[in-house]
Amino acid sequence: AAGVIQSPRHLIKEKRETATLKCYPIPRHDTVYWYQQGPGQDPQFLISFYEKMQSDKGSIPDRFSAQQFSDYHSELNMSSLELGDSALYFCASSLYRSGELFFGEGSRLTVL
Amino acid sequence: TQLLEQSPQFLSIQEGENLTVYCNSSSVFSSLQWYRQEPGEGPVLLVTVVTGGEVKKLKRLTFQFGDARKDSSLHITAAQPGDTGLYLCAGEGNFNKFYFGSGTKLNVKP
Fold first, then answer.
1. CA-based torsion, B55, B57, B62, B63: positive or negative
2. Nearest 5 degrees, angle CA A89-CA A91-CA A94?
């Protein structure tokens, strides 16, 4: 069965650079979530989209933005990167009201 | 502050032992999920419980949702090294929002 696809899996950037992460949800899933997970921490919710509209916003910095496109894939854009942005970024998809989240393998961002 | 508190935070046991992980909140959730995460990988959904008092079994894993839908437990019987990982509970609130617990890091020694 198709799972959530994230790219790239690994990304190394310098401070003040920009980065874009991509997420392709499970087919027919209408909701996408972005999470940030630091070492030894639980996933922190950043932002979510339902049917291509932003549905909720968590602890996403103003330097970050995201959107969901007509084919339901989503992109997380991160600018003016800081050392503290180094983390695993997960995308999860869901069918609205199903009560289940399915996570991708994650994108590991390292900011040097 | 964490909406969902998990305990214990760390657990190191011998193969064959039993264990229980707890997930507690003062909030009511429409459903609650348990995930297992291995280092560098995404959390994998183990189970979803929806009804208060519901009990679900997945081989050696038993999940229970509290009667008031505020808490849950995960019991593992005869733990194996392959059970090692980070166990996360997540509660579904209003508007399809999910709240994660702080996680329980389990290490099962052979």
1. negative
2. 155
Q: What is the mean pLDDT of residues B59-65?
A: 96
What does the block give as tokens for A92?
Answer: 């999860």
- What percent of the residues of chain B are helix, what percent strand, and what percent coil, each to the nearest 5? 5, 55, 40
Complete DSSP assignment for A50-70: ETTEEEEE-S--TTEEEEE-T
For residue B107, which amino acid is it?
N
The answer to whether the CB of A80 falls within 8 A of the CB of A63 is yes
Tell me the pairing of strands A87-94 and A102-103: antiparallel
CA gap B60, B79 in Å, rounded: 8
CA distance B36 to A67: 28
How many angstroms separate the CA atoms of B18 and A86, rounded?
36
pLDDT at B1: 59
Q: Which two tokens stand for residue A107?
A: 């994108």
CA B55 to chain centre: 13
Chain A residue numbers touching B102 (CB-CB < 8 A): 42
Distance of alpha carbon B87 from alpha carbon B35, whole angstroms: 6
Measure the CA–CA gap between A99 and A101, rounded to whole angstroms: 7
What is the percentage of chain A residues whose pLDDT exceeds 90?
85
On chain A, the residues whose CB falls within 8 A of the CB of B101 are: 42
Cβ separation A108–B100 shorter than 8 A: no
